[in-house]
Design brief:
Length: 277
């Protein structure tokens, strides 16, 4: 794609002599990178919560309902995740279907990784949550150390995009373990846990509009918290009645959630982001 170059007029008084100066290529690179990220609106968060809930039900459908186990399911979702991220990085602009497909890939992978770490490895939800908090923090630290910023408007290279999607994957994984820890280990149940995480997200929204707290910090905090909310909502949909769930089919719930996401993306226009979040 040919990008037009703008020149600043540095002419003399008779406008007969000037030295053209092109806008920095980094500016054009930045605009292209930003175009891959959707604008953060109410629609963004609604689809994000639906996608994380879908990640819980679809991940469990593969590992539990089909009895493939956490490790095999993780391998399958890891391949899908890698392919989706590669396609997202290769894309020249924002494609809502590709972006949200990649988000779903991260959240299904996060579900099976979290279940493998907390259950198969036997370290429990608390231990798994602590481990994943450390991994997420390490990822953000390395990202900031390497690129100088973790804000979305700093994504100006494929390397930065890899950090972005790796961070998202770790946040999705942490959210699964954290949701299970609150709902099961702490005995809060699915509905109470959903209220807790929903209330925390509401507080972040209030802080966004009424305080000067870093918008980047608030964005990533909200991004992480939508995952445990989705995890407990997913468990509420498919867990047995005697465990506080609705005992719905994991495949049926996944299909309904996917249909909701598709309808939202078809009905409502979603633009590329023009600023950091």
């Amino acid at each position: 794609m040919t990008v037009p170059i703008n020149y600043h007029d540095r002419s003399s008084n008779n406008n007969s002599d000037y030295n053209p100066k092109p806008i920095s290529p980094a500016h054009n690179t930045l605009q292209a990178a930003l175009a891959k990220v959707p604008e953060v609106t109410l629609l963004f968060w609604l689809v994000k919560v639906a996608a994380t809930t879908l990640g819980e039900t679809a991940g469990d459908a593969l590992s539990m309902s089909l009895n493939l186990g956490y490790l095999v399911s993780t391998g399958i979702f890891a391949v899908i995740f890698a392919l989706a991220v590669a396609a997202q990085i290769k894309a020249r602009g924002f494609n809502k279907w590709l972006y949200w497909g990649t988000i779903i890939a991260t959240t299904t992978l996060g579900t099976t990784i979290a279940d493998f770490v907390t259950r198969s490895m036997g370290i429990g939800y608390a231990g798994g949550s602590a481990l994943l908090v450390a991994l997420l923090g390490l990822c953000l630290f390395v990202w900031h150390k390497s690129m100088g910023s973790i804000a979305v408007d700093s994504i100006v290279s494929p390397r930065a995009e890899v950090f972005y999607w790796t961070t998202i994957m770790f946040s999705q994984t942490l959210g699964t373990a954290l949701g299970d820890w609150v709902a099961d280990t702490k005995g809060m149940g699915y509905t109470t846990s959903a209220i807790i995480f929903g209330s925390l997200l509401a507080l972040i929204a209030v802080a966004h509009f009424t305080t000067k707290i870093s918008k980047t910090l608030l964005f990533w905090s909200a991004f992480v918290l939508t995952r445990p909310l989705g995890a407990v909502l997913g468990d509420f949909l498919d867990k047995p009645l005697d465990h506080g769930g609705l005992d719905l089919s994991r495949f049926g719930a996944s299909a309904a959630l996917l249909a909701f996401i598709v309808i939202c993306l078809l009905v409502f226009k979603q633009r590329a982001s023009a600023k950091a979040h």
